[in-house]
Specification:
alpha+beta, two-stranded antiparallel sheet, single chain, 56% helix
C-alpha cells in the first residue's frame, strides 16, 4: 500500500487535503521522497524496529503541514491542526521512484522546536486518551531523554536501577527537615539514619513494583527504554521478589528502629502508589499525578511520626505542600516528553490537553503550594508543635522568595513555551523543594 496525497482547490479558494491509501496513488509522493528521507534514513525500517505490530500510528497535521518523524514537515496552503489517520505501520511505505512533485504546494525539511506554536493548539483539545500518534521521539534513535539513558549492564546495576535512586533521594530531602521541626532541634542521629534507611527501602520497593507494572509502556518511551526490565537484565518475577523483600525490610526497620506508625505510613504510601496510581489512575485519568502523587508526600508524615509516634496539623500542612508541588514539578517534565506519553497511551495532562491549559493548571497548583508553605508558619506556632525554636524569618523569607520565583517561572513558561524552559522549570522545582526544606532546618537549628 502506498500513501497518496492530493491537494485540490475548492470553489471558495481554500485548499483541501485528500488522503488515499490505494495502490494507484502512491506515485504522488515520489518527487519528495528523497527530501523526506534525507535525515531520517529508511522510515519503514525504523517504524518496524520501534512500533509494535498492533500499533495504529497517526501523522500529526499542524499549521498546514504534516509533521513526520524527526521533525520533517510537509507544508500546505490551508492552515489548522488536524490528525491524519493511516493504516497499520506495516502497510506504510514511502518509495523513491520518479513522480509528481507538483502534487503539493511546498515541501520543507525542517526541525522546529517541539513546543513551538503550541499556544495555537498543537493537537486537538478533544484528543482521545487512546489515540496513539506516530511521534518523532519514538523513531529517532538519538532522541533526547531526561537523565542518563545508559542501560545497566550487570544484574547488580539492574537491581539498583529498579529502585530509582534519584527519586528516593528527592523523597528523603523532605524527611530530615520534618524530623528537625518535630524535635525542635537535631534529633537522635541513630533515629535519623534508621528513618532514612526504612524510607529508602520502602520507596525503592514501590519504584521496583512500578517498573514491573509499566514495563510494557517503558519499552515504547524513548526516555525509559534503558530500564532493566525492558533490556532483560532483570526478569519480572525477580523484580517482584526483590521489591516485596524491600517492603518487608522497610516495615521491620521502621517498626524496630522507630515505631509502628512510621512503618505503617511508609507501607501505606507504597500501597497507594502501586494500587491507586500505577494500576488504576496512570493509564486512565489525566489527573493521575495529582491524586497518585500523594504517595510522594508521605515521607514528611513518616519523619514526624518517627519523632512523636503520632501526627498533628503541622505535618499535614507539609504533606499538603508536597502534594501541590508534585503536579507542576512532574508536568514540567511531561511537557518536554508529551510525545512519549501520547505514544504509550498514558494520559498525562500535558499529553491530552492544549499546552496553555496544562500551564494554567501548573500555575494553580503552584499558587496552592505557596499558600501551604506560608500557612505552615502560623499553624506550627498555634500548635506549638516544636519543643524548641519556632519557625522565623529565615524560613518565611525563603518561602516567599522561592514561591514567587516558582510561580513566575510557570507563568513565563505559558508565555514563552519551549522545551528548554520546561526543563528549566522542572530543574528549578527540585531546587525549590531542596532549598525550602533546607531553610526550614536552618531556621529551627539556629
Amino acid at each position: 500500500m502506498h500513501l497518496g496525497l492530493l491537494a485540490r482547490a475548492a470553489r471558495d479558494g481554500r485548499s483541501s487535503l485528500v488522503v488515499n491509501l490505494e495502490h494507484q496513488l502512491g506515485r504522488l509522493l515520489d518527487g519528495i521522497t528523497e527530501q523526506l528521507l534525507q535525515h531520517e534514513g529508511d522510515v519503514t525500517h525504523e517504524v518496524d524496529r520501534v512500533v509494535p505490530h498492533d500499533h495504529h500510528p497517526r501523522a500529526i497535521l499542524l499549521d498546514g503541514g504534516i509533521h513526520f518523524p524527526g521533525g520533517t514537515c510537509l507544508h500546505f496552503r490551508d492552515r489548522g491542526p488536524r490528525q491524519l489517520g493511516s493504516e497499520r505501520h506495516s502497510n506504510l511505505v514511502l518509495n523513491d521512484r520518479a513522480g509528481h512533485p507538483d502534487s503539493v504546494p511546498s515541501v520543507a525539511s525542517t526541525r522546529p522546536p517541539p513546543l513551538a506554536g503550541r499556544r495555537s493548539r498543537p493537537y486537538d483539545a478533544g484528543m482521545s486518551v487512546g489515540s496513539r500518534p506516530l511521534v518523532p521521539s519514538r523513531l529517532a534513535p538519538g532522541g533526547v531523554a531526561h537523565g542518563s539513558r545508559r542501560a545497566p549492564t550487570t544484574r547488580l546495576g539492574g537491581f539498583v536501577a529498579l529502585t530509582k535512586p534519584r527519586i528516593i533521594e528527592l523523597l528523603l530531602i523532605t524527611t530530615v527537615p520534618t524530623m528537625v521541626l518535630a524535635e525542635g532541634g537535631w534529633p537522635s542521629t541513630g533515629l535519623v539514619l534508621v528513618t532514612l534507611l526504612g524510607g529508602s527501602l520502602a520507596a525503592g520497593g514501590a519504584n521496583a513494583i512500578n517498573m514491573v507494572i509499566d514495563r510494557d509502556i517503558d519499552a515504547l518511551m524513548e526516555r525509559t527504554r534503558s530500564r532493566p526490565l525492558v533490556t532483560g537484565v532483570i526478569r519480572p518475577r525477580e523484580a517482584m521478589v526483590f521489591a516485596i523483600s524491600l517492603e518487608v525490610l522497610a516495615l521491620a526497620v521502621l517498626w524496630i528502629g522507630a515505631n509502628l506508625l512510621a512503618g505503617l505510613l511508609a507501607i501505606s504510601a507504597t500501597a497507594f502508589y502501586v494500587g491507586v496510581y500505577s494500576l488504576w489512575l496512570k493509564r486512565t485519568s489525566r489527573q493521575n499525578i495529582v491524586i497518585g502523587g500523594a504517595a510522594g508526600a508521605v515521607p514528611v508524615l513518616v519523619g514526624w511520626a518517627a519523632i512523636h509516634e503520632s501526627l498533628a496539623w503541622t505535618p499535614v500542612v507539609l504533606f499538603a505542600a508536597i502534594f501541590f508541588w508534585t503536579p507542576p514539578h512532574f508536568w514540567a517534565l511531561a511537557l518536554r516528553y508529551a510525545d512519549d506519553y501520547r505514544a504509550a497511551d498514558v494520559p498525562m495532562l500535558p499529553a491530552v490537553v492544549p499546552f496553555d491549559r496544562a500551564v494554567r493548571q501548573m500555575v494553580g497548583h503552584t499558587v496552592a503550594l505557596v499558600s501551604m508553605t506560608l500557612l505552615l508558619v502560623p499553624v506550627a506556632r498555634w500548635e506549638q508543635a516544636a519543643a524548641g525554636p519556632r519557625l522565623g524569618w529565615i524560613y518565611l523569607l525563603a518561602a516567599v522568595v522561592l514561591g514567587a520565583a516558582f510561580l513566575g517561572a510557570t507563568v513565563l513558561l505559558g508565555r514563552r513555551p519551549s522545551d528548554r524552559l520546561s526543563m528549566q522549570v522542572f530543574g528549578f522545582s527540585i531546587t525549590y523543594v531542596t532549598v525550602l526544606f533546607g531553610a526550614l532546618t536552618l531556621d529551627v537549628l539556629i
